[in-house]
Design brief:
D-Maltodextrin-Binding Protein, domain 2, alpha/beta, 15 strands
Length: 436
């Protein structure tokens, strides 16, 4: 089996690179060399070298190593080792397609042809429901993975923060690319920060975690649900301000010279032509709720190239992002395709960090049904993990940070979560599950 997360507990793997860094730091390269010599396997004919045993969660008594591809006919593969097109399932949003294209480009660098297959998920189809009501977790994931299980596609590309901590045992997380920024950002028409919002300002988000942390910092805020793709959410924010300015420019153009009022150098048409594309789309949108600000993932804005077109600021500490935020995960059946994906995509540091985050989440039993923020960062031989569990109204919380040994990060993450559960985190999550 590939050194990916354990199918049930999602334990991670210990990368060779981290081991070597630890050895160099402590002058113990001789010991590290012995460990590596005792702990590597060659995966099939590709010759990928990975660390296993205590570093990987690999279980030789349960999970056999990947087998070499056999020279049998496959309806898309041909015969006797000929390469075939890898079909990747993806959601159809602009962000999802861009993320999938990044995966496709990485595989293309290994001389593999890739076809993207758009799939509508439960989360996409039920647009008027909040995320935490869409079957608890996996609303944007299950439909894609079912295509893999049915053999219609070879792999599926997910935003890792959308993935449930438990998924079909027939699948592995074959690839975890390098993570983008994990932070949440506050987007406003004028670019003000959280402290600059007026009393009672309306902030848009459908995330329980974001809502609870906003209210913990600013109890006066009104937090309203906000659904849609990233660009749609930005359009909903900008629409009222832009339409008001357009109406004022039209009024100014028809105003007599002797009448008081603002004047403009450009006509309404010239002004509109100078707007960014997303601003022009927002101008054509009928406003629903007048938001003063919205909260989005910085990674999403970066991936659809909107960071230069909106005014935003990172939410300050103590805001903690969702586990896996900013990271992607590619699921597949174990075997040759999974090995190809891993060799082309896998980023050891990101896999370790997200393994810690998702192990903690899985142990706590949070998911999308509770306000839980988890963030982990590899720092030398340790993984610094920060966890924040809140009540839905932000009035109660359990927050803690801990340095976890990188060599045993999955078990250490699990123990950390168990300690938090005993300190009150389990009660807050249980309460969140009971609330409508």
């Amino acid at each position: 089996m590939l050194p990916v997360w354990d199918r049930h507990s999602e334990t991670g793997f210990r990368s060779i690179g981290v081991l070597i860094r630890v050895g160099r730091k402590h002058g113990s390269m001789e010991r590290v060399s012995r460990l590596l010599a005792d702990s590597v396997i060659l995966i099939g004919s590709a010759g990928f070298v990975y660390c296993h045993k205590v570093y990987t969660g690999y279980r030789p008594d349960v999970d056999p190593p990947p087998r070499k591809a056999e020279g049998r006919f496959n309806r898309r593969a041909g015969v006797n080792g000929m390469t075939r097109t890898i079909r990747l399932a993806t959601r159809g949003s602009d962000l999802a397609l861009r993320q999938a294209q990044r995966v496709a480009d990485a595989l293309g660098s290994r001389r593999r042809d890739v076809e993207l297959v758009e799939v509508e998920t439960t989360g996409d189809a039920v647009r008027d429901e909040l995320i935490h009501r869409l079957g608890k977790t996996g609303a944007f994931v299950r439909s894609l993975d079912e295509k893999v299980l049915d053999g219609e596609v070879d792999a599926a590309v997910h935003s890792m923060k959308d993935m449930p901590t438990e998924f079909p045992s027939e699948l592995v997380v074959a690839g975890v690319p390098e993570r983008a920024a994990a932070a949440d950002v506050l987007v406003t028409p004028e670019g003000v920060g959280l402290s600059g919002l007026s009393d009672g300002a309306t902030v848009g988000t459908s995330s329980l975690r974001r809502k609870a942390q906003l209210l913990a910092e600013r109890p006066d805020l009104t937090v309203e649900p906000l659904r849609g793709n990233v660009d749609t959410r930005v359009e909903k924010l900008l629409a009222p301000t832009l339409r008001a300015e357009r109406d004022e420019r039209i009024a100014a153009e028809s105003r007599d010279d002797d009448e008081d009022g603002p004047t403009y150098d450009r006509s309404p048409e010239e002004w509109r032509a100078g707007l960014a594309a997303i601003e022009r789309r927002a101008l054509d949108r009928e406003p629903e709720t007048a938001f003063d600000a919205i909260v989005l993932a910085e990674a999403g804005l970066e991936r659809i190239e909107l960071l230069d077109d909106v005014a935003y600021s990172r939410l300050p500490k103590p805001f903690v992002p969702a586990p896996g935020q900013g990271a992607l995960a590619v699921t597949a059946r174990d075997g040759e395709t999974a090995a190809t994906i891993q060799s082309a995509l896998d980023h050891p540091r990101t896999r370790v960090e997200t393994t810690v985050e998702r192990t903690i989440l899985g142990t706590l039993g949070g998911g999308c049904v509770a306000p839980v923020g988890i963030y982990a960062v590899v720092q030398g031989e340790y993984v610094q993990a920060t966890v924040r569990v809140l009540s839905q109204d932000g009035t109660e919380e359990i927050e803690a940070s801990r340095e976890l040994p990188a060599e045993s990060h999955p078990d250490a993450a699990r123990r950390f979560a168990e300690d938090l559960a005993g300190e009150g985190a389990a009660e807050l999550i249980a309460e969140a599950r009971r609330e409508p």
